[in-house]
Specification:
The protein contains 20 helices and no strands. The protein is mainly α. It has one domain: Growth Hormone, Chain: A (Up-down Bundle).
């Protein structure tokens, strides 16, 4: 009986990880759903670019060695997001959330109408600008609105909604051969729901923490949040930057080439890729909520180190295996990626005070962007030198292990700490 009771208790604990904590108020749950819907759309847009890479290559005649550069150029849109972050730390979170969703609606829908590689890159550049700002502001909302003991779970929930967006993109990609306009329809479909969510955002309140901080007076200098970070929080921003650079150098390329690898090396049809992404992704997105909830209990640092190591191993297995190992490695790679993303999102908001929190998160995203662009460019060079994408991506995956000593030595624990 004792063994049975212990098993029931363990099972109850597992289920609690994936459901909203009982202490959350109805207003908190409504806020999470509204913010999660935005994450859904943002991840849908980014997943379409990865899934439809072979279709884009065929439509625009992109050379094999230039694929990484095309994807990297689109990701440069994260750079100007710093201006949204500075505005957010100055005038508030709510207004910027509405603006970013409206901008994303236009950029995403227009991507389906692109007539050349240059036009497509320019539109996806704009989409990345708005998705970067949107995701940062949504995470800041959760960190500033939820109780300290549930912040990790809240950030994990947002990422799980993003995973559902990726799954929906995978589902539609399975029908790409039957949709009017093919891959272009995938972008057009996303435009209207974004406008709807932007309309709903009018119901959002400003965060209490920002209003309390703003009551003391807004900074006179527009760049004040950046100056505060580099004057008073240099060790923290250095640690976050190094982790972002090490991990996202490889993960953008390794995830971005998965659909192409499955179709060209293992002969998967688009429908099979879609099925794999949906089934495996449905399991993997649990990593979002699980990582957030577990880190609320055992700490962000330990959870982050475990996720980094698992991700490196899973990517190497994926690009060097076949048969049943492919979906298993895909699940582990995506599960651990989500876990790392949740941890870095949470920590990069928790380490900094309200007056510069949004700016610090954006600086981290700029590091992510530079690492991603560099990784995609290097992948093209490694492909030319090694002869296969699998060899290039397997070698690149090792870079994420460089983040482990940074977490162990430079990063302080932030779970269950009160924000300033």
């Amino acid at each position: 009986m004792a063994g049975r009771a212990g098993f029931v208790g363990w099972l109850t604990t597992v289920f609690r990880i994936f459901f909203p904590p009982a202490e959350l108020q109805p207003a908190d749950k409504k806020l999470l759903l509204l913010l999660g819907a935005a994450f859904f759309i943002c991840n849908y847009d980014m997943t379409v670019l990865s899934l439809a890479l072979p279709d884009l290559q065929q439509s625009f005649g992109i050379a094999e060695e230039d694929l990484g550069k095309v994807m990297g150029a689109a990701r440069l849109g994260a750079l100007p997001a710093i201006f949204f972050a500075l505005l957010s730390d100055r005038i508030g979170r709510r207004r910027l959330l509405i603006v970013t969703l409206l901008g994303l609606s236009v950029a995403t829908g227009a991507s389906g109408l692109a007539r050349s590689t240059e036009e497509f890159i320019a539109l996806q550049f704009c989409a990345r600008l708005f998705t970067t700002a949107e995701e940062i502001l949504s995470v800041i909302y959760v960190l500033e609105m939820l109780p300290a003991r549930h912040r990790g779970w809240g950030v994990g929930f947002l990422a799980a909604m993003g995973g559902l967006g990726s799954g929906f993109a995978s589902l539609l990609y399975g029908m790409v051969d039957y949709l009017p306009g093919g891959w272009r329809a995938l972008y057009m479909i996303a435009a209207l729901p974004i406008l709807y969510i932007a309309w709903l955002r009018r119901l959002l309140p400003e965060t209490v923490m920002f209003e309390r901080n703003a009551s003391g007076g807004l900074p006179v200098i527009f760049w004040q949040p950046v100056l505060e970070i580099f004057r008073s929080h240099r060790p923290e921003i250095t640690a976050i930057a190094l982790i972002a650079l090490a991990f996202w150098f490889q993960i953008t390329a390794t995830l971005g080439f998965m659909s192409k690898y499955l179709q060209e090396i293992h002969g998967y049809a688009p429908q099979q890729v879609s099925l794999l992404f949906i089934v495996a992704g449905s399991l993997a997105i649990l990593g979002n909520v699980a990582a957030g909830s577990i880190s609320d209990r055992i700490g962000r640092r330990l959870t982050l180190v475990a996720a980094l190591v698992v991700n490196c191993a899973a990517v190497i297995v994926f690009y060097n295996s076949a048969g049943f190992l492919l979906p298993l490695a895909w699940i582990a790679a995506l599960f651990s990626f989500f876990a790392v993303d949740v941890m870095v999102n949470a920590v990069s908001g928790e380490l900094f005070p309200t007056g510069c929190r949004s700016t610090a998160s954006t600086l981290r995203m700029i590091c992510v962007m530079f690492a991603a662009v560099a990784g995609l460019a290097v992948e093209g060079s490694l492909f030319s030198a090694l002869g296969t994408h699998a060899a290039a991506l397997s070698l690149m995956s090792l870079s994420s292990l460089l983040a482990v000593p940074v977490v162990a030595v430079m990063l302080r624990e932030t779970s269950n700490t009160e924000l300033r």
